[in-house]
């Protein structure tokens, strides 16, 4: 009985190890495959930014222009600062419980990580307003055509969960600081579709350089080095 149990345990552990190794190899390998690699940064168009905090990526766009006024959905008044002078707003999709209950890595619970990894939770959109943004190693400036920006707008807008009045659903009482807010979003986070996969998909949908597939921020930034 004990030998049989040990054999089963060994098989399970071997399977987990094999899956982990294959997953890591896939993450590292597929993220290096480029999509839209021949795209060149436009001289004229809409200025957007790809932002990374070292783990998570956001896309920042103008608060308003002739194509889209984001104030119709994401309102200054839903942030503590209520800063109407902000010029850019960033969007980052992710697991709702992780977003709301894990402000620091030290706050991460096993239950939160488990549910996020295995598609057991819901999602949220994190937004943040900025007065200014400048290019750096963790903030890449991209100029997209008006047509491609319209596609990006559609992708971002379609990621929000809407109520019966066709309005975005603000998650009141939650923020990391004075300039950000959370909203209900569509979809579920998992091992194969993370916050960075969403950002990568946003870039792909708007005909910008991206990875074929990635789950981590370096997989996107690699194509902008």
Q: Would you list the SSEs in sequence order as H and E? A: HEEEEHHEEHEHEH
How many runs of DSSP E, i.e. beta strands? 8
N- to C-terminal separation?
A: 56 Å
Average pLDDT value?
90
> Given the C-alpha coordinates, what overall shape results?
globular
Number of discrete helical segments: 6
Work out the strand percent: 15-25%
* Rg for CA atoms: 19 Å
Strand order of the largest sheet: 6-2-3-4-5-7
pLDDT < 50 stretches: none
Q: Portion of residues in helices?
A: 25-40%
Largest pleated sheet? 6 strands, antiparallel
Structural class assignment: alpha+beta
Describe what is shown at a glance.
The chain has 225 residues and is an alpha+beta fold. Helices cover 32% and strands 20% of the residues. It is globular, with a radius of gyration of 19 Å.
Molecular structure report:
The chain is an alpha+beta fold. Helix content is 32%, strand content 20%. It contains six helices and eight strands. The chain has helices at residues 2-30, 96-101, 110-117, 146-159, 195-205, 217-221, and strands at 34-35, 46-52, 57-62, 88-95, 123-130, 139-144, 180-185, 210-211. The strands form two sheets. The chain has a six-stranded antiparallel sheet. A two-stranded antiparallel ribbon has the order 1-8. A hairpin with a 4-residue loop joins strand 2 and strand 3 (57-62). It starts with a helix and ends with a helix.
